[in-house]
Amino acid sequence: MPNLEHPAYPAAALLHLESLVPCRESQVSLLLSIFGERQQFSVPSIFIYGHTSSGKTYVLQTLLNTLQLPHVFVNCVEYFTSRLLLEEILIQLQSCSSETELTSHVSCENFNDFIRLLKQAIVSRELQDQTLYIVLDRAEQLREMEANILPAFLRLQELTDSNVTVVLLSEIVWELFRPNVGCFDPLTLYFPDYSIGHLQKILSQNHPPEYTADFYAAYINILLGVFYMVCRDLKELRHLAALNFSKYCEPVVRGEANERDTRKLWKNIEPHLKKAMQTVYLREISSSQWERLQHDGGEPGQLKGLSAHTHVELPYYSKFLLIAAYIASYNPVRTDKRFFLKHHGKIRKTNFLKKHEKTSNHLLGPKPFPLDRLLAILYSIVDNRIAPTANIFSQITSLVTLQLLSMVGQNDQLDGPRYKCTVSLDFIRAIAR
């Protein structure tokens, strides 16, 4: 018996929708009851929240596309300013009902223009008798825009006097959205995390055609037994399942075991799953590199430059600060004028290296340096001019917090703080690229 039933939609479409959204039938049923029929007025705004990879975006896209409801779907991270966001909504609305006409650029300076153009688009596309759904994914970005954007979207149905429903998708709760001034509260709907049984059911649907469903379900059960305590992300688990399945099948391919020899299959894949535990979420190596390591029997750390620090993302000036800190830690002070001044004068040749054994500074380790030397090198290696603002000093503090720099001594020293760079040369090379 189908779980999804609604008199306004064909039973075949609902049955197909149910097959596309496993373990989310209750949420879809609730959304259908909120949406109502096409010509009925729906609630002005809906706020859907839940942790990452809980199916919010996928379920709503699948629901709107399968039932062919008129909608606009915009990611607020991609369209990060109010003007880009409003113009994208209007552009998608232009193209949603006329596939033959070329979509022209729409200029929208403010929300008043948006309301006027939206009403015109609804009339021109003959959507007066249907509910138009405007879905804003990653809606937490709206808090970074002008103060009137979020309250205006929540009352868009009232402002346009049209059958429009705004759906906000976010990973944070509504209490972190609510402005200080009063605004219209949306209808909230929570998407819970997938349970281990839900993950087992969803991941088992992707079994390869050359193997039986029971064989692949047993593999998923083993995978979840290892990773479920540290990873609940459906996308990550699906990636891990696809990455390690070939290793699980090796004894069957070689003829050493059949599909029911669970013990032999577990012994074969156990060490490889333990290696994969080191790369959950980090993406230290690509899928091709991981498959090559499995084939060669190596360790993940054997590949050069695969440290998690190599792929860390830093702000623009923090990268230059870290490069400047590395130079200050490993270059002697006397070389600064030679390296960073265009007219440094004549260089004297001394017998210093003859008297003292020439030793690599990398073997001696990083040396402490003062803050003013760090900033002087920073100003030399950055092309454009930088003002010594609080933003620069806060990024230095962040680098210390991330343990990429270490502070030597105390903050209350009269001559100012001194720092050391704690990262390796490979890390600095990756940052410099």
In N-to-C order, the SSE pattern is: HHEHEHHEHHEEHHHHHHHHHEHHEEH
User: Which descriptor suits the 3D outline?
Assistant: flat
Q: What is the average per-residue confidence, as pLDDT, rounded to a whole number?
A: 84
Please, what is the CATH homologous superfamily of the largest domain?
P-loop containing nucleotide triphosphate hydrolases
* Overall number of structural domains: 3
Largest sheet: 5 strands, parallel
What structural category characterises the helix and strand content?
Answer: alpha/beta
Beta-strand percent range: 5-15%
Distance between the termini: 59 Å
For the CA atoms, what is the radius of gyration? 29 Å
Q: pLDDT below 50 for ≥5 consecutive residues: which ranges?
A: 98-102, 300-310
CATH class of the largest domain: Alpha Beta
CATH topology category name of the largest domain: Rossmann fold
Q: Count of helical segments?
A: 19
Please count the beta strands (DSSP E, at least 2 residues each): 8
What level of helicity do the residues show? 40-55%
CATH architecture of the largest domain: 3-Layer(aba) Sandwich
Record the strand order, biggest sheet. Answer: 2-3-4-1-5
Care to describe what's here?
It contains 19 helices and 8 strands. It has 433 residues and is α/β, with parallel strands linked by helices. The protein folds into 3 domains: 11-190, Rossmann fold (3-Layer(aba) Sandwich); 196-308, no CATH class; 316-341 and 362-432, Arc Repressor Mutant, subunit A (Orthogonal Bundle). The strands form 2 sheets. The chain has a 5-stranded parallel β-sheet with strand order 2-3-4-1-5. Strands 6-8-7 form a 3-stranded antiparallel β-sheet. Helix 9 packs across helix 10 and helix 13 (316-330) crosses helix 17 (371-381). The longest helix has 21 residues, at 234-254. The protein is flat and about 90 Å long. Keywords: ATP-binding, DNA replication, Nucleotide-binding, Nucleus. Residues 216-283 form the ORC5 lid domain. Belongs to the ORC5 family.
